Amino acid sequence: TEPSPESLFAALPERFTAWFAARGWSLRPHQAAMLAKAAAGRPALLIAPTGAGKTLAGFLPTLTALHARPPANRPEGRGIHTLYVSPLKALAVDIARNLEAPVAEMGLGISIETRTGDTPVHKRQRQKLKPPDILLTTPEQVALLLSAKDAPRFFADLEMVVLDELHALVTSKRGDLLALGLARLRTLAPNLRTIGLSA
Asked: Are 13 and 64 in contact, with CB atoms under 8 Å apart?
């Protein structure tokens, strides 16, 4: 049996439990389930309406893992840890903004950036040299990143892919493009875990 939400909440780092407590929140069952699946190394699909804490549920495994990760032992740092893919570039920007608040309030020191068709060239180039911990992007940008000769280095440390709005992707050619990208990512990062989010 999977651990209870109460036991998973108690196992969270203190700054996470304090952050939840300051808001009068506790782990919702679906948020606890996502933590349990991630701890077991299993993929997960969460179907929940807007306003149910779906984004936080999808990113809690990433935030706790990054908080526990030791400093990089390379001057250029690591590659990205989590890749978030949305069919809408505006959604990627909104999710980044929503994530920045808890990361800042908990003092997690996690870098979060977006990469869409609107991202300036100089920022894209810098991201390839010094990737953020969490990159929020679109299927087309994933395909472009995977086509680059330095893709093996860029994705070498990838541990998690969060796929949002899956219902809008699976029936389209963009979904096919993303499926091909995921297959390639699994060859570059064999221990990759996936989380799907859908309404």
From this structure: yes
